[in-house]
Protein: N-alpha-acetyl diaminobutyric acid deacetylase DoeB
Amino acid sequence: MTSANPLPPSPITPTVDFDRDGVQHGFLRLPYSRDESAWGSVMIPVAVIRNGNGPTALLTGGNHGDEYEGPIALSDLARTLDPKDVNGTVIIVPAMNYPAFRAGTRTSPVDKGNMNRSFPGRPDGTVTQKIADYFTRELLPRADVVLDFHSGGKTLDFLPFAAAHVLPDKAQEARGFDAVRAFSAPWSMRMLEIDAVGMYDTTVEELGKTFVTTELGGGGTARAETIRIAKRGVRNFLRHTGILSGDVDLHETRWIDMPSADCFSFAEDAGLIETMADLGDPVAAGQVIARIYPMGRTGTAPAEIKAGHSGILAARHFPGLVNPGDCVSVIAVTE
Ligand SMILES: [Zn+2]
Structure:
């Protein structure tokens, strides 16, 4: 990156050495002076498992602080990955937006920063922007392959899928879809991002890296099934790239995509939501998939949410009450 005014260095100091062989558990230390701690820091956990000069995988969860399959699977991996099974380097950050993760919220309680809208970040910006900048300028240049776990968080619930993006560079796109296949979630998504500005995904892909993301459930929790999918998926991802020894444990998957904005439905009313289709159910364009009851009185007809596209229900609003503008449902098209 060239600029007339080069960016200052990142304020983050790692307590680990990314070039040292073996297992290290440490922190990315970000100075954050505040009322409770005058010379305090945000301590973002990081693990490095390295064995020689092979390729590097960067594995992240907690990009949004209320999504749990990633942090669980990555905490397990960081504790159990044996360097003798590794050829190269595995960098694990289970909770990327650590302040948000500690608060159990999607965005950071420090600055309201949404990590996945904060890239490429700024070394002189907010806490969230400083973390993003560290990934952009320090961690991503080390990585060959990148896996970022997401789930629906407190407000959405998803069919469990791994995803890669449709990209202008078709060789890079194919590497992404091959890695999604290896991850072996029950569903695999070809994603066309409608609003990609500020996303980690976009920064990773612009740097030419092979990138896989996921949506593995939601509701502000993690289920045994989705945790199993995450644990198997991350090891499969590492085996596929040759960083972890052993064969990919390939499971059946069904490919889906979201071809247009018609796939998304948004509430226009506040109220009590009646879900009329479950995740994975087939739906036809025009079918009523949810109703929203006004809460203040009886005898008023509910507003109807109709499917804008035929396919299957891939995501739905999770809490029982909705507000205008909330995403109520997402439909995916099966191949
Ligand atoms: Zn997320």
Q: What stands out?
A: The pocket of zinc ion is lined by residues 63-64, 67, 150, 153 (CB under 6 Å).
